[in-house]
Amino acid sequence: MKDTVHVIGGGLAGSEAAWQIAEAGLNVALHEMRPVTGTPAHQTDGLAELVCSNSFRSDDWEHNAVGLLHHEMRRCGSLIMAAADACQVPAGGALAVDRVGFSDLVTRRLEDHPRIAIVREEVTGLPPEDWGPVIIATGPLTSPALSHAIAQKTGVDALAFFDAIAPIVHAESVDMGVAWRQSRYDKPGPAGDEAAYVNCPLDRSQYEAFVRALLEGPKAEFKDWERDTPYFDGCLPIEVMAERGVETLRHGPMKPVGLTNPHKPTEKPYAVVQLRQDNALGTLYNLVGFQTKLRHGAQAEIFRKIPGLEKAQFARLGGLHRNTFLNSPRLLDPRLRLRMDPRLRFAGQIIGVEGYVESAAMGLLAGRFAWTEMRGIAFEPPPQETALGALLAHVTGGHRDGGAGSFQPMNVNFGLFPPLVFDPPKKNAEGRRVSPTDRGRARKRHMSLRALAALDGWLHQLRTAA
Question: Which residues make beta-bridge pairs with 168?
């Protein structure tokens, strides 16, 4: 079986890794434990199921690092990005998808590939030696048996953090006599709709009452072994944000900027709750940024205090689950191999990246590293000037001296890229002052152009070597 690459985990990273290997002409055994063994967060047995938001975040490749990562992955023949583009729903400047259609499409593409065999079973220990090369992409909900085997192998405890899920409501239950459709600053997105969000306005008294309800509402209790587990700052429960100060939410997920209420055009909302389309039919919407650890019984009561949601019907309530990830800078080499056993690669959220696209990107790289290695092709990691390379360098090289105490899950961002030798002009051709915001956007665009040039060179080297 050493002519086959085994991929453990059928999430975003595992699905992408399997696709990259199969498209290169090698055989893949893709092991997925659902439905034989379930998880606390998944609801189906579909591959690449989205268990939290349905958003892949910004699709702006010129000024946003995650949008740049989208663009790079498309150039690399990403299955995940192709499926996301095919299943997108309106979301302003973001790329959001119909989560069911997205999972169905990825599952179908993998099932139909002649070089991919999908094995529905739980892998309860480290893969046997006769499997040959293996990619472990089991995500943040790795089964206890496999987690234990990995911990025994590495001798280093995995870190852990809590991740929260936002509620989803039926669109027909939203009162559009109170709410309205508009994207922030009327910005159109990849789906071409500048009115992609449903907005629910709150005045000051309504906002403050809502914050009090969040703080007073009953929360999910942790087990003793979970009590010291931190949250990931990029996906904080809304109650935890509220605990940081009464104004925190209206400067975060409930900020009112860039929105005008057509029902009361002369009155500026004090805060706004945004709902984003969650499926292609437009029948389901999720509450943006409303990840929560409130008990289910309290969620409906508290969220119905939001104007426009007084009669909301919930298709799914929010939840909380414990995620785990490796101390990857100490354990993995620059090609995502386990230093003490290079036969094993890791990819996805288990290595300490956060976000759908980031997880899939690491699966893409793990898949490419695996097939080039099997074919004896010299293949260097992507340059750090690229989004792919910057994220990989953070995971495999960042915080090496700080160890487990400082390494945390990370979204892709321009702070991970090498400094740019470019100072945007402070005045334009007419001699007028250029704002700091416009200068910042200019720097980001130059970083993105540099990244794509570096990516093209990297891909050309691979094509030449292959």
Answer: 286, 316
pLDDT surpassing 70 at residue 38: no
> In the chain, pLDDT over 70 holds for what percent of residues?
89
Give, to the nearest 10 degrees, the angle between helix 356-374 and helix 436-465. 20
Cα 315 from Cα 309, distance rounded (Å): 13
Residue 153 makes CB contacts below 8 A (sequence gap 6+) with 126, 338, 340, 341
The token pair that represents 277 in the structure block: 């389309």
Q: What is the DSSP letter of 130?
A: G
The CATH topology of domain 4-158+326-416 is FAD/NAD(P)-binding domain (3.50.50)
Interatomic CA distance for residues 308 and 359, integer angstroms: 35
The owner of tokens 């989004």 is 387
Tell me: domain 164-322, CATH 2.40.30, correct?
Answer: yes
% of the chain beyond a pLDDT of 90: 59
Helix boundaries (H) for 158-293: 204-216, 238-243
For 370-406, how does the pLDDT look when each residue is reduced to its tens digit (9 = 90+)?
Answer: 999 999 998 899 999 999 999 999 899 854 444 444 5
Contact predicate 393/45, CB 8 Å: no
State the number of CA atoms in the 13 A half-sphere of 399 facing the CB: 21
What is the structure's pLDDT at 282? 86
The answer to whether the CB of 360 falls within 8 A of the CB of 404 is no
Contact 392, 365 (CB under 8 A): yes
pLDDT exceeds 70 at position 274: yes
Q: Which two tokens mark 126?
A: 């480290």
Q: Where in the chain is the domain with CATH 3.50.50.60?
A: 4-158+326-416
- Whole-angstrom distance, CA of residue 18 vs CA of residue 355: 19
Report whether 85 contacts 73 (CB < 8 A). Answer: no
Query: 387: helix, coil or strand?
Result: helix
Helix, coil or strand: residue 6 = strand
**Exposure string for 396-426, b = 16+ CB within 10 A, e = fewer:** bebbeeeeeeebbbbbbebebbeeeeeeeee
Cβ pair 356, 201 in contact under 8 A:
no
pLDDT in tens, 313-357: 998 888 876 777 888 988 999 999 999 999 999 999 999 888 899
Tokens describing residue 402: 């700080």
Specify the pLDDT at position 188.
72
Q: Pairing state of beta strands 4-8 and 134-136?
A: parallel
Q: How far apart are CA 132 and CA 343, in angstroms?
A: 7
- Residue 399: per-residue pLDDT: 43
Q: Check: CB of residue 241 under 8 Å from CB of residue 214.
A: no
